[in-house]
Amino acid sequence: MLTIYREPVITLLARPQFLEPEHLAVQQKGEASDAERLAEFAGRLCYMSQHNPAGRTTAEYLGNILKQGHGSVFEHATYVLLFEGVSRSLTHELVRHRAGFGYSQLSQRYVDEGRAAFVMPPAIQGNLALEQAWEEQVASAHAAYVHAVDGLMAQYSWVEDKIHRRKMAREAARSVLPNATETKIVVSGNVRAWRTMLELRLGEGAEREIRRAAVGALEVLRGEAPALFGDFELYQAPDGEMAGRVGFHKV
Q1: Catalytically annotated residues
Q2: pLDDT digit string, tens, across residues 140-154
């Protein structure tokens, strides 16, 4: 039986830790995460306004930063997310976001896909005829992969190093696996980079699977730092999927 994902699974791996220097301490007001405090500190350092003359809370201060479009102070705080239950088709698009991001993805050359999972496209979900046809197609591709690995392992029997032999077999056999093959990827990005990615991938024009992943990422990040991601609004698009719009464009 094949494992089939219908939704992405997104897990927070790391958040910023802010170590405020005593000699430049900001007179901060209100509750705030380390990422939000770090962004405020960076912004106030530019004008040496640590004494907070306007008496703003951190959320109010960052709201003004968003309004003014001074997004460079958001580049200091980095969040790391783990994406699972996503297809290689999705990650081919995701890794196009370069500035401010880092990626580490499961390697099909080293990892045995004999127990691979697959991601069903949202457009197919709910159409029983299309679902059945799709499942048959990925099952056939998976069987072809397993058969190819077995044959290539026999073909490379002369290779004494078992690890290298398996890699040689898997790297060739993976060619028959579809883009729907499930993968896992660790993604690190600074707040400014995450905002740009979310603005683009939450839009109605974004492919539906990556839009779902963007919605999941936003929910995690907004829970971590509402003052940095709270201007994003989610709504149901005409295609039935959730989509999003941002209040402050490309900060």
Answers
A1: 201
A2: 999 999 999 999 999
